[in-house]
Write a structure and sequence with these properties.
6-stranded mixed beta sheet, 29% helix, Nitrilase/N-carbamoyl-D-aminoacid amidohydrolase, alpha+beta, 265 residues
């Protein structure tokens, strides 16, 4: 996606994608981080961030999923919490439109880049505190992470302990960090977990002035890139998840089974 500042327009984009994915034979659709709205102007965007129960976009995606009988991994939405802060929250919605799982992004993107870009996610967003894995999806056992989480191996070690079949890592990566690290980090996480990684990404020039790297990826458990959607334009693409491939890789290279605790000095 190239999400803009209008949640209603973004909702229409996701609704079209749900219908197109279902028509194309997909069992599950993955969207990027902040699929509902990307707006770096918090004074302008803040009033559009509402509690989960009041989100028209979430309601529309749930209705679309139920209509199409399609599971949706909704990369993340900005959600208003009861304590007045916001959450960067992922949702997994099943084929009947019910919310099967939620995950709040744990690691806040607080950085100052050499390009002059400065981001302080923690100024408005509260960090999540729970690892989330959901079973029974069309792609097996699904682990959830969001964007900057990818740089923190302990989270993925925990997802590995849960023997996830697929890990979703939706993102809105900046261009400088994307060029340097996007592909290598996604492949590393897939190899470490002996699992597929599905990384739906924001791409291109956004209404709020930012530019995102794109390159939505599907990586197999051996680290091979099955799908790379490039860095130019949004769209919909299809990839096949072969659950038998996971067992093959884990049999050939049983790193999860061989893992030992590291002694503390």
């Amino acid at each position: 996606m190239t999400s803009g500042i209008d949640p209603a327009a973004n909702a229409r984009t996701i609704a079209r994608a749900v219908d197109e994915a279902a028509a194309g034979g997909a069992a599950m659709l993955f969207s990027p981080e902040m699929a509902g709205m990307l707006d770096r102007d918090r004074a302008r965007g803040g009033p559009k961030i509402v509690p989960e129960a009041d989100s028209p976009l979430l309601a529309a995606v749930r209705e679309g999923a139920a209509r199409a009988g399609l599971w949706v991994a909704l990369g993340s939405l900005a959600i208003a919490r009861e304590d007045g802060r916001w959450a960067n929250r992922s949702f997994v919605i099943d084929g009947s439109g019910e919310i099967a799982a939620r995950y709040d992004k744990m690691h806040m993107f607080d950085v100052s880049l050499a390009s002059g870009e400065s981001w302080r996610e923690s100024a408005a967003y509260a960090a999540g505190e729970a690892v989330t894995v959901v079973g029974g999806t069309p792609v097996g056992k699904l682990g959830l992470a969001v964007c900057y989480d990818i740089r923190f191996p302990a989270l993925f070690e925990e997802l590995g302990r849960h023997s996830c079949d697929v890990i979703a890592i939706p993102a809105a990566f900046t261009v400088p960090t994307g060029k340097a690290h996007w592909h290598v980090l996604q492949r590393a996480r897939a190899i470490e977990a002996s699992a597929y990684v599905v990384a739906a990404a924001q791409v291109g020039e956004h209404e709020d002035g930012r530019r995102t790297y794109g390159h939505s990826l599907v990586v197999d458990p051996w680290g091979g890139v099955l799908l790379d959607m490039g860095g130019e334009a949004p769209g919909l693409a299809f990839a096949e998840i072969d659950l038998a491939r996971i067992a093959e890789v884990r049999a050939q290279l049983p790193s999860l089974a061989n893992k030992r605790p590291i002694p503390r000095s």
